[in-house]
Every structure is written in structure tokens, then in C-alpha cells.
Amino acid sequence: MKIFISADMEGETGVTGYNDVSFEKPPYERFRKLLTGDVNAAIEAAFDAGTTEILVKDAHHSMRNILIEELNPKARLISGSEGKKLCMMEGVNRGFDAAFLIAYHAMAGTEGGVLHHSTSWNIHNFWINGVLMDEAGISASLVGYYDVPIALVTGDDKVTEQTKELLGNIETAVVKEGSTGTLPYA
Percent of the chain having pLDDT more than 70? Predict the structure, then answer.
């Protein structure tokens, strides 16, 4: 079995504020390590379940957040944003059996969503065929084009609720819970 992993950052374990995911802020290095840990947990679980090949796409901001020297060496990594036409899903194709969305977050305007936004701080709403989407929904649409199902979504409780509402009863892992008054990304 071949798995594609897209790893954002706002939905990772422990992230609660903008400084945690912003490369010019002191906490960022700590959270790169935690992101790599979340991705490694998904990689290890997939290999334990019989996966034979994993491709990871670093999908947050500049797309150079995962610590390659700490990433499980059995997985391959695509990093950087230059020339990546499929952005967060660069590298996916019909050869994959499933995709995991790791460390994702809720869409812009989600009450209680941790660092909720939709694709960037200046895009508040994004629709596909009349359906309002978050980044997980956009990513699911892209992999759906290649007939690759989303098998797992991790992040806060709001993104997992939104993804189940959009895609049905899929596997999710809540790594934190948002609360009323949680600030958006911007």
C-alpha cells in the first residue's frame, strides 16, 4: 500500500498561536520538531498497518518546516514551495492508495478553531461547486481528482468535525480542542 501525507502546521500538537508557526518567531523551531513528531507518528502507524511506501509533502507556508534529519527515513519528503503547482498536495497521483492530512486546521470564521483560516490570511472563503471549503476540503478535492481517498485527518476538534461533515465518517485524530474566543490566524 502506498500513502501520501500532506502536513500543515497550525493543527499540530501543541500549537496555539501565530508565533508557534511563524519562522521569524522564537517558538517556531520547537514546533518544527513537534510537527515532525506528528508526521512520524502517522508514518509509523501506516507502516505498522502494512504500508510499503510513503511520500510526505511539507505543506505549511514556505513548505520547509519538517526536520528532514528527524523524519522517519523510510518516508520520502517533498519540501519547498517553488514550482509546486498542486501546493499542499504536490506529488499526489493515481498511484496512491490513500492520503493522510496531518496537522490541519478549521476554515476561516470557525468559532473556537485554533488558527482557523482558509488557504491564507487574506482569503476568507473558498468554494468548490458551491460548497464552502477549508484546506482539508480543498486537499480532498485535489486527491479526489486522482481517485485517492482521504483516510485520516489530524488537527483540532473543529477541523475533524468539518472534515467528517464534508467527507463522511472518516478516521480522525483530535490532537487539541479549540475554545470560544480562539483567535484566527491573521
Answer: 91
Beta-bridge mates of residue 150: 99
Domain boundaries, the chain: 2-176
60, 105, 116, 117: the catalytic one is 117
pLDDT in tens, 52-104: 999 999 998 888 899 999 999 999 999 987 877 888 888 999 999 999 999 99
Q: Annotate 3-26 with DSSP letters as a single string.
A: EEEEE-STTSTT--SHHHH-TTST
Angle of CA points 4, 84, 134, to nearest 5°: 65
Q: Are 128 and 113 contacting, i.e. CB atoms less than 8 angstroms apart?
A: no
Nearest Cα to 8, choosing from 53, 29, 28, 38?
Answer: 38
Q: Give 104's contacts (C-beta < 8 A, 6+ positions apart).
A: 8, 10, 11, 134, 135, 136, 139, 153, 154, 155, 159, 163
Q: Does CATH place domain 2-176 in 3.40.50.10780?
A: yes
What pTM value is reported for the model?
Answer: 0.91
Give the residue among 21, 14, 65, 70 at the shortest CA–CA distance from 44. 70
CB 161 within 8 A of CB 110: no
pLDDT(122) > 70:
no
61 among known catalytic residues: no
